[in-house]
Amino acid sequence: MAAHARNDVLAHNIRRLWPADRNAVLDYFMRLDPETRASRFMGNVSEAGVRAYAAQAVTAEGVLYGAFVDGALRGLGELRPMGASPSRYALGPCAEAAFAVELAVRRRGIGASLFARIARSARHRGVIDLHVRCLSGNGPMLRLAAKHGAALQHVGSEIDGALHLARPTPFSLWYEGIAEAFDFTVAVSFPNREIAAV
């Protein structure tokens, strides 16, 4: 059966990406097939453009999460502020999420895991409305956004999905802090090691 037609869950781990992951992020973006790359960037982007984007992705405002399969980065989710961030640790009331999963491991649960992790991260950074934009022909992203309860609205050739997030609790904030500390330790100590997600 072709990889794109599978729907069984593939073992993977999600963790936050840090500057130590810069090379893995670059390799990941360069491996994307043309269609996936165009869907991620909402249009065609040159190899030089992809390299430039990947080089600054881990240090740009916001946070990145990666999905690792057998130690290799195979999916990436980004959470970026919409407008100026009120602080280093908060994104403000509105933020935007972007996702891409390599074709060979798509429809195996990775996109859903990335979406859930991004939504959790956004909730704990002061985001009330999380937006996901994609081209109207991006069926996988539309299904993922709808599955998580996003309200979809057509804007020209694009779709904007808006997800209203619940406010965090003291326990969920504590848990998020522990998870981020764990992610950082893994990134700097075992960047390619398969670690069970917390």
TrEMBL record:
InterPro entries linked to this entry: Acyl_CoA_acyltransferase, GNAT_dom
Record Gene3D superfamilies: 3.40.630.30
Highest rank taxon of the organism: Bacteria
Name recorded for this polypeptide: GNAT family N-acetyltransferase
Membrane-spanning ranges: none
Residue ranges constituting the N-acetyltransferase domain according to the UniProt record: 12-170
